[in-house]
Amino acid sequence: MMLAHSPDLLEHRRQEAIAVAQQCAQILKQEFGATQTILFGSLRGDAPWHWQSDLDLAVSGISDEALWQAHQQLALVMPDWLKFDLVDLEQVSPQVRSRILQPPFMPPHSDLALKLHIDDEMAALERLIKVLNTLLDQADTIPDIALIPALASYITDFYTGCERISERVAIALEGGIPEGSNWHEQLLRQVADSGAQGRPPLWQGSLLLDLNEYRTFRHFDRHRYKLELKPDRVLELAHQVQPTYQKIQQAIAQFPLWLSRRANPAASPASDP
């Protein structure tokens, strides 16, 4: 077994991440006047801690400018392997705020945790698409030099949200995500196939092709200057976000049904006499 897969090393990482989280909370309160800091996510126990887990902190009582400064300050104390998210508790959606404020828990059935995480990602995608559509409605009044980079950022965020759903499924049901430099492409293919425990394919047919286009665009957007983006291509992808999301909704709708049948096989029609 590779050392990177050692359970002891994974637990060591978790303990190190907890210590870093405590240090971050102290910085936020003492240097930025935060009135509240809350650790949430897998490090709190809301979901299994795994190799790709990050540190999620919610904060309240500081301004937008201070939040940006705090993010830069906290980045200095993070280990190279640990990514982190710092969110303003007062600006997140009511659904996410409710999840953050709830008592720490690990759902008795891991499928419930998976469903909750997918629900959160879908809600975030809906909010993103509303903003993107508003931007598209105003496209004729915005110069390309401002419009194209803005649209590209939302397109990139859209695929990132879809990829997080893929990650949740792979981690919850198959123990992890692929490794290597092309793991993003491998992950998309992994969840597009039938998986462990009888998991049905997540993305299929034209939806898989669409998501692969967005994955490719995100790679280009992240590794090129915004001035190199082709306006016609960006506009095409931006207009296709809504219909692609509708396909995603249809695909995701099948998952709760499968999870329910897995949790209660006796309720499956195949088990009826």
Structure characteristics:
single chain, mainly alpha, Beta Polymerase, domain 2, Four Helix Bundle (Hemerythrin (Met), subunit A), three-stranded mixed β-sheet, disordered C terminus
Notes on the structure:
61% of the residues lie in helices and 6% in strands. The protein is globular. The longest helix is centred in the last third of the chain and has 33 residues, at 231-263. A 3-stranded mixed sheet has the order 1-2-3, covered by helices on one side. It has 273 residues and is mostly helical. The chain is built from 8 helices and 3 strands. It starts with 6 loop residues before the first helix and ends in a 10-residue tail after the last helix. The protein has 2 domains: 3-101, Beta Polymerase, domain 2 (2-Layer Sandwich), CATH 3.30.460; 110-265, Four Helix Bundle (Hemerythrin (Met), subunit A), CATH 1.20.120.
**Can you give the mean pLDDT?**
86
Give the helix proportion (percent range): 55-70%
CA radius of gyration: 20 Å
Beginning-to-end CA distance, first to last residue: 46 Å
Largest sheet: 3 strands, mixed
Low-confidence stretches: 268-273
Shape, principal axes of CA atoms: globular
